[in-house]
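Figure 2 data, in text form.
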Amino acid sequence: MAVPFYDDNLYLLNMKNDLEAKASEAIPSVESLTAATKDPIPPSSVLKQLAIAVEAGSKAKSMKDLIASSGVSSPARERAGLSFSAVKALVLREKEDKLTSEFTSNEKVVQLINSLFDPEGDFLRRKINSNLEETAMTSLPRDIHGAPPESLVVKLAEILGNYKTLRKMALFWCRVVAELRKLWSEEQYLPGVPQNEIPDLKSCLLYQHFQVINCCISRKRFRIIATESLDSMMMQANSDIKESTDCCAGAPASPVLYARLNSGELVLRLGADHPAGDMTLLETGEPVYSPITQEGPLLTEDLIRETEEFVLRTGSVGAGCSQLLSDMQAFKAANPGCILEDFVRWYSPPDWTDNEASTEDSDVFDSGEPLSTRGQLSQRMQKEGNLWRELWETSKPVPAVKQAPLFDEDLALEGILNAFEDIHPSDLFGQLFVSLLGLGFAIAEPMLSSNSDFSKLFYDCKEYIIVACQNNKLNEKVDDLVQVYETVEKMLLDPEEALKMIRQTEESTMVTGEPRSPFRTLSLIFGGKDKLLRKSVSKDQTNDEEKSGRQSFSSFFDSKSSLFGKKPPKSGFPSPSAKSSIDTGWTVV
């Protein structure tokens, strides 16, 4: 027979679990995050939470799966049998919709979103040393494949790192994606991202996609302006022709709008941008104008990889042909009376050779002079069946703004936003982790590089994170990287104490006769700190690491020393069972 009795320890434990569960559900506010910017670099606790998310998120396939699975089921429910499995999908869908609705309408979440996407706000903007060289701020984030300091990606990383549960982090990300869709539909730029720059392949893929979004908005705006300008110019040209016909037989006054053919006919130039130096058309002698051309596709690193694989597999060069054909059509529209040789001289100068005699007499134009006496195409251009000649013969004079777009912005953005919804949690959190790590080091560098006590150690730490982030094994390194970041944070926030402990440790190593190593020193100083937040590496885990050849932080510098003896926990998120724990001290035996 079971006998209930009251256990004070169990009651206190359950109380503690309930408090921790409630704290984990708290949503960070704009005020609390703004107050945190008083610290020189983002708190290590934020980076640690992202590190935990990288490891814990590897078990889910997408952010949506993370929302549906995180905290919904429990071992007890799973043991309920097949009846639970049969209705699980419907329950998850209903619960996910309810959670998303409640979260997105939360006042703190709305304020965070508004502050994050405020183009004129100073939200999460840290004070950066004015003497910092620009190269230090830009090179390190690119070396580790992160995002530029003060960018939207870095701010997003700091916000998500302040959440305490994976579910809340996933829900906030979904809210961010919804905001991205809204801004795209309204053609509003993303703050903290250049408005018209091609993707920076040295930055993380998330930042590249943000660059694509702003580039697409710029292109759509430019196309609208260019189309209106072309239509207005054509209307003005028609008006000028009518007036000149009524008043006199002379040519219109604007040399930019028209080109004269050999027959004497004046033809309107369409899509002409600016004169191409002193070049003139070979057959008519009219100035050559560089046309406004279509911009090529916006290629991020994943698209470049897919394109290369497609070309290698099929041997296709279709994209290049489409761009060439488009440029030919734009050139024809801007230069009536042109021939292939004119296009080649403008587009690919190495494929055209001017005759010396023709160059010396270039001031005198003779339309009856044969082309062979003025220059010639390269051998590859003269070959029968040359692709350029075939495309030229099929191309028509069409300005770029009237052509079918080579790059469909709407289709590209829809693909990016859909990919955001289905992104693997570990991929997202990994990019955010590295970006925030880069910001901290970029800000800390001018503060510690000139410090004779810490500069050597700082640069050793910097070297380590660069190597660790470039080997594409972030999941194996996040714990070590967090500890490196904590070291830098300690030197910034409490330099006197850090220096004191370093000197004490150096004295102890001199007595024992061990090799002097700054990393050995830091292992003794900080290795025992934060025991509640770190756990020892198990023997089995150590053996697995040795078998896989994993390079630890300490082995990077000194195989005999250990910089940090402890590691942060693999999962810092509260167990779902913590929320449902009984808050009494009664148990049954």
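Caption note: The first helix runs from residue 8 to 24.
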